[in-house]
Amino acid sequence: MERLDRCLKKIGELPNESPHKVNIKGKWYTTVATRLEIFRQVFGTEGKITQKLVTADLERVVMKANVFVYQNDRWEKVADGFAEEFREASPVNRNSAVENCSTSCIGRALANLGLHGSEFASAFEVQNAIERKPSAPKSNQFTKQSIPKDFLS
Description:
Elements: H1 2-13, E1 21-24, E2 27-30, H2 32-43, E3 47-56, E4 60-71, E5 74-86, H3 91-113, H4 123-130
Antiparallel strand pairs: 1-2, 3-4, 4-5
């Protein structure tokens, strides 16, 4: 896929500096905003990302993003990505868990497409891990029956 190669080249040419990358503990992470911007520049109207809210309750938000490319006279799904955010995990999530989860699932989908820019985790995910993100609440455990049937569609 020539366009994907162009995206990778553009990411590779970015300098290790803000605003396109962040340095956390000596590793450079390309921001989701930058990766999305490059995807849009290269694919234009022949690339799209859809999102689905899988679940949202008082404790957590789960979302899925799908990346599609228009080729061979149809939209083809080329990657997807999931994200889960716990509302009490950070000050950002207390007010904006859905928005943060949306950004994270887009970042995961782009990374699964190959647009990760040296490090796979998002800058926010790494920062959360460093700050010892609290454990997931134990009161709402998954069971096979609690996962929607179309979760992986």
